[in-house]
């Protein structure tokens, strides 16, 4: 049953990530991948909101939705791509922004539920 609840959340999170990524790329093209930065920041906030929840909410929204919505692998590849193409300053900015905004958003989410 737990796996089904996680799959339910993931079934919403993954398509949401895809659609947001696609729409942001239509309106904004930047060397720094703002779409992934925004998605990971929002996902961190959502996980922060649900981290202290019990039972099904944590499974559906925290593990399922936020887990499928956020994307460490895309962030890692995009960062590597920036370094590989000699955009080191932009890579460091992207890396720092992702960490600062992600941890900050998660902390705000946790604080709001305390």
Description:
The protein has helices at about 1-25, 35-50, 55-70, 70-85, 90-110. The chain is an all-alpha fold and about 110 residues long. The protein has one domain (about 1-110). The chain is globular and about 45 Å long. It starts with a helix and ends with a helix.
Shape: globular
Number of domains: 1
Unreliable parts: none
- The helix fraction, in percent, is over 70%
* Quaternary state of the chains: single chain
Please give the largest β-sheet: none
Computed structural class: mainly alpha
How much is the radius of gyration in Å?
A: 15 Å
- What is the H/E order? HHHHH
Mean pLDDT score: 96
Question: Could you tell me how far the N terminus lies from the C terminus, measured between alpha carbons in angstroms?
Answer: 28 Å
Strand residue content: under 5%
The counted number of beta strands is 0
Count of helical stretches = 5
Write the layout of secondary structure elements.
Blueprint lengths: L1 H26 L6 H17 L5 H14 L2 H13 L3 H25 L2
Helix pairs in contact: 1-2, 1-3, 2-3, 2-5, 4-5
